[in-house]
Amino acid sequence: MMRPPGTTEDIRISVVIPTYQRCASVRRTLEALARQTMAPSEYEVIVPIDGSDDGTKEMIERFQAPYWLSATWHPNQGRAAARNAGLRLAEGHLIVFLDDDMEPVPGFLLAHVEAHPPGSRRAVIGPVPIPVDASSPPLLRYRSSGMDAHLGRLAQAGYRIGFRDMYSGNLSMPRDVLREVGGFDETFTLYGHEDYELALRLAKAGVELGYAPLAIAYQHYEKDFAGLARDCVARGHTAVLFARKHPDVASSPQLAGYRTGSPGWRLVRSVMLTWGQWVPSFPEWVIRAMTWLERRQPRRLPGLYRRSLDYFFWVGARAALREPRRPDLQRMRIGLCVLALFAAGSSLRLAARKVHELRHVRGPDEITRYEARFQELRRALPPYARVGYLTDATAQGPANDDEAPRLAFKRYLLTQYALLPAIVLPGSHGGLAVGNFQSPNGADSGSTSHRILVRDFGDGVMLFRTSTE
Q1: What class is the 1-222 domain?
Q2: % residues pLDDT > 70 (the chain)
Q3: How far apart, in whole angstroms, are the C-alpha atoms of residue 432 and residue 387?
Q4: pTM for this structure?
């Protein structure tokens, strides 16, 4: 039922379920919450809809719930922003976060209440096992076994829970504590690490991190390998964001462990990441290859899952590391002003140049003439070849002594441009050297001593090699 305006009942628990494009999953969660052992009048359910257009809002409006039920819609901004939207509406003393693919057991809410004794400052997670059977696909079994191992560690006697153990799919804490630390960080717009980041701030604020083994919410995992791979790419991005926000803390064992693992896999992963930079579609090839392998279910499929997902994590992490960090607003404004002034000045200069060219049409410009001179030589050189550069001992022309070095360097730069993608270096390099001489009929004897002419291309353009080659 919807809460009537002005209702003043003392709500014990606010359940917040952020959702995006999962109408059927949310309905299953709402139905499970209707079967709780706690009295429906003691809790409310808030569904922040993160930009969904799949009918979730209309379904909630029609849903007949025995508890207080409300929803709020906003454009897609990510899970952190959606949870904060629900927190702002919450009236319960205890906040319980659930993911939209969870199905809590009947004693779920009561177990969370009992995990928070009066006067305590705790953030508590409950188990989120992934149910499987003999007909479950291999990816679901892989995810289930990984979650079972994690839950087994949490349940060990004396195990001390750290911020890396926390997740927000089944999490509870007092509303005042959550608001005290500022809620979730909404700069985490992609999947992952917003729960680690909140847990770290909670721990620094003296909040105890705990585990309630009876607060069970079964996770109905519905993603295929492509969806899981995209999540891993997003986790790579957010791991870098976390590390930049908290440089004093190792954000993720995976982020800190690039050089760990077997040498063979590190080499293969490095080659795959390099291929991904050259061929943007390469990650999609990996997804198609893994989907093909899933249908055949080889014995080593779990290991292939682990390595391929590690690769996708580093696709995201390396992409985030290449992104420039956001400057502060003042520096951004200064940069925009400088850019605007530069653009205005460049436009005026280009306009003046065009007017000058129209008034003084004298054939092709200097760069065009250089390209024409070196065109045949460029075809003779292999791509990306490294060659030396020889020229007249003294630049000729109507320039004074101070102008000669500048003109010589200008001719060297124009030669580099004309021979791209070859690389031109001063002097000799690799036994080959390009001659660029003022006189088209001969080479400077001082520059070409101990060198053998390979070919004369005319107009003072020549190719030499050292006499020792």
Answers
A1: alpha beta
A2: 80
A3: 5
A4: 0.67
